[in-house]
Design a protein that fits this description.
heterodimer; A: alpha/beta; Helix Hairpins; 22 helices; elongated; B: Rossmann fold; 2 domains; 8 helices
């Protein structure tokens, strides 16, 4: 009977769109760092923490109004409790566990054990409860003692991501730190007992084993308050031994932690870069740093909304020094690209490395992550182009082929080469620009003839008509300009800018 | 055979392979010069029977090649330093030849120009700009792609004005290019030197025989225009 009810509820939740949407919503606002509205919840909770701690500190020497105290005691604690419950809820799906266990039982034709099921569910939730961030959250709920309320300040760490990174660092050196910790405990324990035995009856400041252990810790840490000091020769010898050993141990522990941080520092830095770029609505991921990337970034820095992913840490180091935004990683790995906010932002991936195999792999990787990612890939030759097209690349660039055409042009039509070179490299001599006609432009409704491009020192090369989505080369003079048409204009840069400001926008 | 243009390509790599193929397709005689035995053998294997293996750092050997004044020289050595060095050597005793150098980096481009290359083609410059244009000027990119792809509809063409052509002696303003469906982009007025004059500067020039005009248009319109130009000429 109980089993039946449980199964019914589990399947009911599994099929309920409302339940899934609600859970997803709470997941987004609490845990999904890429979710744009999460930051508001974070700011709200941070404000509450600061308020609560501030109130606790202020109330030590001042009287605070009763309502403020009640607000702090009940309201904030309640909000934190709700937050805690929600986080516990979204941590895992109980109904999925139930269904999985049920299906397993069905398959094995064994009876479903409710006891085992509960143990499994509890185990999953326990994994969350025992995580450091959850413990900090739990402490923050308890408002009973003012002293404990001050601990709420630790909850701030959860919103800065530093806590997790800090914990990660400790995790990587778990073995070393654990060994050191045990050694320290052993040292404090034995020397505490030793001093207790040696001076417990003589030293008036050592009244219990606790006093002796306290003294040992203060000495090992080289703090030495001086409230308890050895009075016998044996006591002093013990002191000398534990101070020297303590120094060594602490130095050792410090070096372990520092080296762990240094190892992790690069990763932390890279994650920071990814986080900051993920906040943008649109950004560019450039895979591989070579001559082409160098050249591109000289021409276009994408308003600093880009990140270079380079495999070689030495190159990353070098270009970071030069001021480029770069991280060390392998862009062909799925988890690397999936760190980026590819679902909410407008992302372009540029595969500019010289290795075709890698570029194709990155293209496929990006496209498998989200079809919405625009991929611009570099291919080595025409044969490769087909493969890139199959992989789904939106634009394929063959540097060799382009250089080739430029070379042939330079031999056969040297003057054309100069013009083309200027156009293709965006040099001043002949500047090709496009002007989109906006809804309030002075140009709307006018004919090509009446604008008189020639007098304005411009050549109208063509118009991309918005209604037919077609490009008309050298349009006839009676062509009428409409909203959202794009004019393709050639002229000196200053002429184009002047035209945009004066004639199009009507700034004069 | 006599009228065939001749191009000397220094260095045989994947890049120069493509270049030599297109030059041959364009009716050039291509001679490959290599200093690396393996690359030289590659060239022979690819059918470039008139490939020559020499030490390109030796001026004497370069002189022996007997490069004629009207020949084209393409410096495309894989090694950047060697390419600059070679450009410099060739410039010293083939001063009248057109030297085109292929560059793989911004720094090499500068050095090759200083070494005396008449034109330096930076492999990545044009490509990088294309990526830039994809983001900034999508419509212009489509047009520009036309110019740099092999199967284009719209392209550039330069025309040399022949004696007694219908353009000879006319002012630019009086020529109706629209009639031919082409757009006049600019010209080289031989009276004023070899400088390219962009049409948008609006200075009215008189066309004379020997001047070069550049037009952009659909391929068949350009051909029609050329036929018209040639048809009138003597």
């Amino acid at each position: 009977m109980v089993k039946k009810v449980i199964m019914k509820i589990a399947f009911g939740l599994y099929n309920s769109k409302n339940y899934i949407d609600t859970k997803k919503f709470f997941y987004n606002i609490l845990e999904n760092t890429n979710y744009p509205y999460k930051k508001f919840i974070d700011i709200f909770l941070i404000t509450l923490i600061i308020f609560s701690v501030g109130e606790a500190v202020y109330s030590i020497r001042h009287t605070v109004p009763q309502w403020l105290h009640i607000f702090d005691f009940y309201m904030i604690s309640m909000i934190f409790a709700i937050e805690y419950m929600l986080r516990l809820w979204i941590h895992s799906d109980i109904h999925k566990t139930i269904i999985k266990e049920y299906e397993k039982a069905q398959f094995l034709k064994a009876p479903l054990s409710v006891k085992e099921l509960f143990a499994k569910i509890l185990h999953e939730k326990w994994n969350y409860i025992k995580s450091p961030t959850a413990i900090v959250d739990l402490i923050a709920i308890m408002p009973l003692y003012r002293e404990l309320r001050i601990l709420r300040i630790f909850k701030l760490l959860r919103y800065t991501k530093s806590l997790n990174q800090f914990i990660d660092v400790f995790k990587t050196k778990k073995f070393e730190l654990m060994t050191l910790f045990l050694l320290l405990m052993f040292l404090i324990g034995t020397s505490g007992i030793a001093i207790y035995v040696a001076e417990g009856n003589i030293n008036k400041n050592i009244n219990s084993l606790f006093d002796a252990i306290y003294w040992a810790l203060i000495s090992v840490a080289t703090v030495g308050y001086g409230d308890i000091a050895p009075v016998t020769t044996i006591g002093r010898i013990i002191s000398m031994i534990i101070i020297v050993t303590g120094l060594v141990l602490i130095a050792f522990a410090t070096s372990v932690i520092v080296s762990a941080f240094l190892e992790k520092l690069v990763e932390i830095k890279d994650n920071r870069i990814i986080e900051s770029i993920n906040k943008e609505d649109s950004f560019v991921i450039i895979c591989g740093y070579g001559q082409m990337t160098k050249m591109l970034l000289r021409q276009n820095n994408f308003n600093n909304k880009y990140v270079v992913i380079e495999k070689d840490p030495e190159i990353t180091k070098q270009i970071t020094k030069e001021g480029f935004i770069a991280i060390t990683d392998d862009a062909s790995r799925y988890d690397v690209l999936s760190k980026f906010n590819v679902h909410h932002a407008n992302v372009s991936v540029l595969c500019l490395g010289s290795n075709d195999v890698e570029n194709i792999y990155i293209t496929l990787n990006a496209k498998s992550l989200s079809g919405g990612i625009r991929v611009i890939a570099r291919a080595s030759d025409e044969f490769m182009k087909k493969k890139f097209a199959l992989a789904g690349a939106d634009h394929i660039i063959i540097p060799n082929q382009m250089a080739n055409i430029m070379l042939l042009t330079s031999i056969n039509q040297p003057i054309v080469y100069n013009v083309m070179h200027a156009l293709l490299t965006g040099k001043n001599a002949a500047y090709l620009d496009e002007i989109r006609i906006l809804s309030h432009d002075k140009l709307i409704g006018k004919t090509v003839n009446s604008i008189g491009f020639k007098n304005k020192k411009l050549l109208l090369i063509g118009i991309h008509k918005a209604d037919s989505n077609e490009f008309i080369f050298n349009p006839v003079e009676s062509t009428i300009l409409e909203h959202n048409d794009i004019l393709l204009i050639m002229g000196l840069k200053i002429s184009v800018e002047y035209f945009v400001n004066i004639f199009q926008r009507g700034l004069k | 055979m006599k009228n065939k243009k001749r191009a000397w390509i220094f260095g045989y790599s994947k890049q120069s392979k493509a270049i030599s193929n297109s030059l041959i397709a364009d009716n050039f005689i291509v001679i490959i010069i290599e200093s690396n035995k393996k690359h030289f053998e590659d060239a022979l294997a690819d059918g470039y029977i008139n490939s020559i293996l020499i030490d390109v750092t030796e001026d004497l050997e370069l002189e022996k090649l007997a490069i004629e004044e009207k020949d084209w020289i393409i410096c495309a050595m894989e090694d950047e330093h060697l390419n600059v060095f070679l450009t410099l050597s060739l410039h010293s005793f083939c001063a009248k030849n057109e030297i085109i150098a292929i560059s793989h980096s911004i720094y090499a481009t500068k050095k090759l120009k200083m070494a005396g290359a008449d034109r330096v083609i930076d492999i990545y410059e044009v490509s990088a700009n294309r990526v830039h244009n994809i983001f900034e000027k999508p419509i212009a990119t489509k047009l520009l792609e036309n110019f740099i792809s092999t199967n284009h509809e719209i392209s550039f063409k330069e025309f040399v004005i022949a004696k007694k052509s219908f353009l000879d002696g006319k002012a630019i303003e009086d020529v109706d290019f629209d009639k031919f469906g082409v757009i006049f982009i600019g010209m080289v007025d031989k009276e004023l030197g070899d400088e390219f004059i962009f049409a948008a500067t609006n200075i009215n020039h008189k066309l004379d025989s020997g001047d070069i005009i550049i037009c952009i248009g659909k391929d068949n319109d350009l051909l029609r225009f050329k036929d018209y130009l040639d048809g009138d000429a003597v």
